[in-house]
Design a protein that fits this description.
eight-stranded antiparallel sheet, 53% helix, alpha+beta, 23 helices
């Protein structure tokens, strides 16, 4: 077993098969380790064999801890720990790449004992090993991210106030993706359970569960039981606010009936009040289209809210109007109301990453949205010429594109997660691709993190059913094509 053997793809792929085996990989890894094979096959792992951890927290050597962590992961997957780890047991079957999960657990402590932060150094090892083990660039990047941030979830849950909205927003800003969130929880649980027999307890389990559920809600808008409770509290806060503004009881009741459950946890009370007044004024005036703008200094962005009749392709048209206006969409939320109207909110910035301060430019965005939705501007004609003149600061960065379709994440919708590099007009390209595939977008959670976008869409087909099988694969391919700058129009 030498460097020549390690460079043979079939050998390393065989090892990946052992590591992520549905049989218990712990047994095979322990035998490989005791015989010296594991350290020769993966020299970076060989450096932590029999390495002591001199503290009162860790019971095992680094290699033994790692192998036990892989064993914990296997036990979660087989349901052996369903009584003590119900959340982990339920989400492990929603993970889209077992190879990513098992490799990240195997490598999370591989750089311990070196000079420097073992998380950062371990991520470098993961970046090197991913291609050797047959992972594609997106999978390799995810493993490296998990190794780099494998302490993030435990540090946040155990050391921060998770009732503080900023704690959740900061955590979501780091994790970014629902798939990463699932992977990180499983890695965190396996890591802690393998530290020692008395380390895991119900208190830690509860904190991790609460953090996971709140982060998931923030990313997707899908409510847990706790989220439903917070949604009811949000309605009561709004009720009190509207009473203080002189609203009559019936008007308050009618307005609250407009919002579906996800709406109430997506926005804060100030935004709920703002929306209530906007909707009331639009309905009183009989306006078919209302475009409202306001400054959001806390986000360093301009908030644009569109209230109009819901129809297929609406979200895509608004996104196209924003691209035509030369602004970057840094976040967006769709809310479809029970009266058939859409309440879509976008947070936009200038190309320099600041909110839009010039009144004439804000007016220009509003006019573009109105003209696009009224059919006076044809995006297919206007946008290609405009796009070529828009600056793209993210062009120098590489972000492996990834599209994940999940049929089980929601009872009523298919959830599609899109990861890729940001560029002018990308959201329009993505939503146009979905509209072209005949999808209805019921909810969207658009987030931009520097050069990376992570967009989550809840979709149905034209008949109101989940998107499944071959159709879902066709949608996935269409979105990957839309992510490719060379194919963008």
């Amino acid at each position: 077993l030498d460097a020549k053997i390690r460079k043979q793809p079939e050998v390393m792929h065989m090892f990946m098969g052992i590591l992520a085996s549905k049989k218990n990989p712990e047994t095979a890894l322990r035998r490989m380790n005791e015989s010296g094979v594991l350290g020769r096959l993966v020299p970076d792992f060989g450096r932590v064999v029999a390495q002591m951890q001199y503290d009162m927290y860790h019971v095992y050597t680094v290699d033994e801890h790692t192998i036990q962590a892989v064993g914990v992961l296997h036990a979660i997957e087989t349901g052996e720990l369903s009584q003590s780890l119900p959340l982990s047991t339920s989400i492990i079957h929603k993970v889209h790449s077992r190879n990513i999960l098992f490799l990240s657990v195997f490598l999370h402590d591989v750089a311990k004992g070196r000079n420097g932060d073992h998380s950062i150094l371990g991520a470098e090892v993961a970046t090197k090993m991913g291609p050797m083990l047959g992972l594609n660039p997106a999978e390799t990047e995810t493993v490296a991210w998990l190794v780099r941030h494998h302490l993030l979830m435990s540090n946040t849950a155990f050391k921060r106030d998770i009732d503080d909205p900023k704690t959740i927003s900061d955590f979501v800003g780091m994790v970014q993706s629902p798939e990463r969130l699932r992977l990180l929880l499983l890695l965190t649980v396996a890591d802690i359970r393998a530290v020692g027999p008395t380390v895991w307890n119900a208190w830690k389990a509860g904190l991790l569960r609460e953090l996971y559920l709140r982060a998931e809600e923030a990313m997707t808008g899908d409510l847990s039981i706790e989220g439903q409770s917070r949604g009811r509290a949000a309605m009561e806060h709004l009720r009190s606010g509207l009473e203080s503004l002189g609203w009559e009881a019936k008007a308050i009741k009618d307005h609250i009936a407009l919002g579906y459950p996800g709406y109430w946890i997506t926005f804060d009370t100030g935004s709920h009040l703002y929306h209530a007044q906007l909707i009331a004024e639009a309905e009183k005036a009989g306006s078919k289209l209302t475009v409202s703008t306001r400054d959001d200094p806390s986000r360093g962005a301009t908030e644009i809210t569109v209230y109009t009749g819901d129809h297929a392709g609406l979200f895509s048209q608004i996104a196209g109007a924003m691209a035509l206006s030369g602004v970057n969409i840094v976040d967006a939320r769709i809310a479809t109301l029970s009266n058939g109207m859409a309440l879509d909110t976008f947070w936009v910035q200038t190309g320099e990453g600041d909110r839009i301060k010039e009144p004439h430019r804000v007016d220009g965005i509003r006019q573009n949205v109105e003209q696009v939705l009224s059919g006076r501007i044809w995006l297919n004609k206007e946008l290609p010429a405009k796009r070529s003149r828009l600056p793209n600061r993210a062009a120098v960065f590489k972000v492996p594109p990834r599209v994940i379709g999940d049929e089980s994440a929601s009872r009523t919708h298919t959830v599609i997660e899109v990861n890729g590099r940001d560029r002018p007009g990308l959201l329009y390209d993505l939503t146009s691709a979905m509209t072209g595939q005949g999808l209805q977008i019921s909810s969207a959670h658009i987030s931009t993190y520097g050069e990376r976008v992570v967009d989550v869409f809840y979709v149905k087909d034209v008949f109101g059913h989940k998107v499944r099988g071959e159709k879902l694969e066709a949608v996935r391919k269409s979105l990957l094509t839309a992510l490719d700058l060379k194919t963008a129009t």
